[in-house]
Each structure stands twice: as structure tokens, then as C-alpha cells.
């Protein structure tokens, strides 16, 4: 990582993704989680206060050391035990069927090989378990999508490889997950190219 990505970007993400308007969305996303959960893209721990009481452990996947340091106070104050258990969502260091559920928030936009990461989620989460997600992505309106395509090269440079145009429901379905619930909307107070949200739950198939 370069100086910007390593030292500056984690603080910017902590500020922008830590806006109070997103807290209710994080709580909605975490509803229904229980048992052992693997969280891809733990970042600075902004979901810590949203975990329901039914969650017993969080295995945090976070590649950035600075982001993990920013999360230190949240991790220390968490009711749920949290371990930094891996660095790369594309190669998870766990046995098959280790977790009850998985969680991603504002993470799927940046993973280079998203198909590999979703395959890994399905490998380490037990059959019938779920992936809970809150992700921005491809807008439902063509006029907004045009702006997303124009802005994406800049966004990728300044936001750690973040894509604006990923079709989140599509990539989940293409990976073999079953999208059971999804709420698609524009987040108020955010420019529309960055505000097309996908909040929902996708289920791991019962059989491969």
C-alpha cells in the first residue's frame, strides 16, 4: 500500500462511513445475525454497536493495519469478542463450514476478485447460513449510471479501488447465493452516483 492508502484513506473512510445517518442502516443489516460471524472488510469497526445480542463471536477480515488501529477502542468496548482473523476476503484462512453467518458493509465495492471472495464466503459459512450486506453499487436509473461510469475511474483512485458500477444483486446471484431480501434506495444527503444502496440478506445454498 502507498502512503495515502495506508495512512490517510482509513481515516477518511472512518469519517464518511461513520456518519450517524448510516447507523440505522447498519443495525438493519445486522438484524438476524447469530452465533459465529465472519465480517469481510471490518474497517474501523463501525458495525460493532450494531451486532445483536445473539452474535457470539466476530472474525474480522481487514487488510489495513491503520483501519484496525482506529477500531481499537470499539473492539475493546465490544460486548462481542472480536478477533482480527484474516487479511484477504479472497482467501479466508478457515476450515469449511466454520461460521453461522457472514457480514459485509461497504466492502464488496473494493474487493478485486469479487467472485473469489463470494466463493470463499460460501465455503466457510455453513449450508443454509446467510450473508447480510449493505453495499452501494450500480444505480437503478440510467441517468445516474452514466455519471457513475464517468466518475468511477476517479473513485477507484481516491477510495481504495472502490467501484461505483458493481451490480450487487447480480454478482450475488451469479455466485450461487440466493438473494432472499433486498431493499434498493438512494441514501438521502449523498450524491446519487455514490448513494445507490443495496441492503439485504442472501442465503448459502443447502447443497452445492
UniProtKB/TrEMBL annotation:
One of its GO terms (molecular function) is methyltransferase activity. Coiled coil: none annotated. It holds the Pfam family Methyltransf_11. One of its GO terms (biological process) is methylation. Residues 39-132 form the Methyltransferase type domain. InterPro entries: Methyltransf_11, SAM-dependent_MTases_sf, Thiol_S-MT. Gene3D superfamilies: Vaccinia Virus protein VP39 (3.40.50.150). It comes from the Bacteria. Keywords: Methyltransferase, Transferase. PANTHER family: METHYLTRANSFERASE LIKE 7A, METHYLTRANSFERASE LIKE 7B. This is Class I SAM-dependent methyltransferase. It comes from Gordonia sesuvii.
Amino acid at each position: 500500500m502507498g502512503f495515502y492508502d495506508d495512512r490517510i484513506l482509513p481515516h477518511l473512510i472512518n469519517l464518511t462511513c461513520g456518519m450517524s445517518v448510516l447507523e440505522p442502516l447498519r443495525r438493519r443489516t445486522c438484524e438476524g445475525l447469530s452465533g459465529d460471524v465472519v465480517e469481510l472488510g471490518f474497517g474501523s469497526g463501525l458495525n460493532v454497536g450494531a451486532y445483536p445480542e445473539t452474535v457470539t463471536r466476530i472474525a474480522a477480515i481487514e487488510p489495513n493495519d491503520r483501519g484496525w488501529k482506529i477500531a481499537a477502542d470499539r473492539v475493546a468496548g465490544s460486548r462481542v469478542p472480536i478477533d482480527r482473523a484474516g487479511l484477504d476476503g479472497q482467501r479466508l484462512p478457515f476450515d469449511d463450514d466454520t461460521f453461522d453467518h457472514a457480514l459485509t458493509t461497504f466492502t464488496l465495492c473494493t474487493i478485486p476478485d469479487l467472485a473469489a471472495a463470494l466463493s470463499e464466503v460460501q465455503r466457510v459459512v455453513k449450508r443454509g447460513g446467510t450473508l447480510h450486506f449493505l453495499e452501494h453499487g450500480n444505480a437503478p436509473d440510467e441517468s445516474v449510471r452514466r455519471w457513475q461510469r464517468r466518475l468511477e475511474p476517479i473513485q477507484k483512485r481516491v477510495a481504495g479501488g472502490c467501484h461505483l458500477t458493481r451490480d450487487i444483486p447480480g454478482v450475488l446471484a451469479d455466485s450461487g447465493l440466493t438473494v432472499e431480501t433486498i431493499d434498493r434506495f438512494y441514501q438521502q444527503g449523498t450524491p446519487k452516483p455514490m448513494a445507490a444502496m443495496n441492503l439485504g440478506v442472501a442465503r448459502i445454498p443447502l447443497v452445492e
